[in-house]
# Entry
Amino acid sequence: MKVTGYQLMDRIELLREQAQTINGQFTGSLFRFEGAGEDKPDPRELMKAFADCERRVALLQAAQAAYNVRVTVVVLGEQMLLQQAVKLVGSANRVKNNWLSAVKNTQDKNSYTAYYDLVRDKTNDYAQRVVSIEECLRLSKEASDLATALKQAIRSGNATEVELDIDPSALQ
# Structure
């Protein structure tokens, strides 16, 4: 069957939401007052439905992994598997954020110790910046450009139709 990454992601998200809803009902279904006419689901049936949702999520995640290694994308001129782009986008964002936070003169502006990390009282020896603010901003922009390129490649990769051996009912 031909599928896109978006179809897989949407179905996985829906099934996870269903599983969460079912799981949330479990504890409340364990006790009932006799004769109160409470209409609570049977906990055994809830857990069967929960396990079925989780099984279907696992099946679709396996299909998604197969999809991600079949689709290739181009990121800043470099060809890579969609799987690799997905794994790199988080670290690219962390690198960008670290360089942006390095622009600050202290590690934590609300901390009394931040000043003392940069000054030694006895000698009035002041810590010097290792990387200039300008370079921090440039490095942050480079990481941001990479993160943006990865996100764009992931979006275009997920729009690609791929033939996968998957039961069509898994996407319904």
